[in-house]
Specification:
single chain; 48% helix
């Protein structure tokens, strides 16, 4: 398997590898909540725990660029607010606020069905 050196390209490949992909941190309560939301809906997301990945910080910085959260100082507070980041069908949904807004407005289930993550 080829090694992908560009972090944004790596995120893109990982994000399109499954119907639902969550970039997470194992100690993040919002990450836990979004994982529980999807599991409670019967969705089995692919989860990448970035705090357990040797290249996790690099991927997280790429995610911040992708979602438009450009910060020059990179500390634990800014990294905590960057996650979770959710992709459905290879397309960026966003962070927890976007996922919950989609869920509340009723657009999340159709996205999940279209991506093949839900069959009902």
């Amino acid at each position: 398997m080829e090694m992908i050196s560009d972090p944004i390209e790596r995120v893109s490949r990982l994000a399109s590898g499954s119907a639902v992909v969550i970039f997470s941190s194992s100690s993040c309560c919002m990450c836990h909540a979004v994982k529980r939301l999807f599991c409670g809906m019967g969705v089995n997301p692919t989860v990448y725990e970035l705090d357990q990945d040797p290249r996790g910080k690099e991927i997280e910085r790429a995610l911040m660029r992708i979602i438009g959260n450009n910060t020059s100082s990179y500390n634990s507070m800014s990294s905590a607010s960057a996650l979770p980041v959710v992709f459905i069908g290879g397309k960026l949904v966003g962070a927890m606020d976007r996922v919950m807004a989609s869920h509340i407005s009723g657009t999340l289930v159709p996205l999940l069905k279209e991506a093949g993550a839900l069959w009902l």
